[in-house]
Amino acid sequence: MDRYQYLLLMAGCLAITLPLEFVLRARVYRRPGLLVTALVPIVVIFSAWDLLGIWRDHWRYNPAYVTGLDLPGGMPIEELVFFVVVPICGLLTYEAVGWVLSVLRRLHETRRRERADA
User: Residue 86 pairs with which residues in a beta bridge?
Assistant: First the structure.
């Protein structure tokens, strides 16, 4: 089971932030073009950085905690999953907070107008 704990953790991160898409109207998954546009630079830059670190032997991955599925260059699949999942979770959180703040701003403006009219 240890070999899959990192992937399970990434799945958990997605599962925990998924309600933000629907409950707090994050609209990240509903705009796939923008999502891909946001993810591509992150995945490319950090994958290159990771591959360079592997190639220069700056770091290694404990085989007890990775599945053994490696991408070309020796990067574990878990690293690619991380470079996709964490930004998605961040975008969901950012968009959800933006929606909540806009609701609070509208509520504040409505109350301010009501007081001014009274």
Answer: none
pLDDT by 10s per residue, the chain, length 118? 789 999 999 999 999 999 999 999 999 999 999 999 999 999 999 999 999 999 999 998 999 989 999 999 999 999 999 999 999 999 999 999 999 999 999 999 999 998 888 7
Report the SS3 class of residue 1: coil
Statement: the pTM of the whole predicted model exceeds 0.90:
no
* Of the candidates 61, 51, 57, 75, the residue with the CA atom closest to the CA atom of residue 3: 61
Residue 17 and residue 24: Cα distance in Å, rounded? Answer: 10
The DSSP code sequence of 27-96 is -STT-HHHHHHHHHHHHHHHHHHHHHHHHTTS----GGGS-S-B-TTS-BHHHHHHHHHHHHHHHHHHHH
Whether the Cβ atoms of residue 27 and residue 51 lie closer than 8 Å to each other: no
Candidates 86, 76, 69, 67; CA nearest to 11 is 86
